[in-house]
């Protein structure tokens, strides 16, 4: 494994959750029951271990006995710039289906686009991309007051500027919105 892999203990619905994530992100899925692991501490058909390997690779199992299931507060699974914009939009929409949108996926004042959703299994996702991608530049062109940190030229085509060190919402004051028609 070369990246962080979230491992969630779910309240008996891993057999539904991991295939749902597979349908969203693609990849190969392996599910193993307690019976297959010779475990007798819960229902034989409960998932003892499941692993999705692909672009996004969550793993998990069913909670058995007194084992607590996942509760997420103060943590987001961030997928920022991890795929093409259309793919990120699809992921966002599919993760939000049956869950709830915390913050719609769209242009933000710091020049990127992102959004947050809690999926129907309780995982909190942060998904986003840079504003230079086409679907986002169209939305930015409709704004009366474009976010600072973008150079907007004729035809409202957003061009990314160098990333500012530090937090994403701290944009240097020398970055302004330019008007090539003036």
What does this structure look like?
By secondary structure, this protein is of the alpha+beta class. Helix content is 18%, strand content 29%. It contains three helices and ten strands; from the N terminus they run βαββββαβββαββ. It has helices at 14-25, 85-96, 134-141, and strands at 7-10, 28-33, 47-53, 59-62, 77-80, 100-107, 112-118, 124-130, 150-152, 158-160. The strands form three sheets. The chain has a four-stranded mixed beta sheet with strand order 1-4-3-2, with helices on one face. It starts with 6 loop residues before the first strand and ends in a 22-residue tail after the last strand.
Main attributes of the structure:
alpha+beta; elongated; disordered C terminus
Radius of gyration: 20 Å
User: What structural class do you assign from the helix and strand content?
Assistant: alpha+beta
Low-confidence stretches: 133-182
Order of helices and strands: EHEEEEHEEEHEE
Average predicted local confidence, pLDDT: 79
Strand content: 25-35%
**Helix segment count?**
3
Instruction: Report, as a whole number of angstroms, the end-to-end distance.
Output: 53 Å
By DSSP, the count of extended strands is 10
Helicity range of the residues? 10-25%
| Largest beta-sheet details | 4 strands, mixed
What characteristic shape results from the CA principal axes?
A: elongated
In what order do the strands lie side by side in the largest sheet?
1-4-3-2
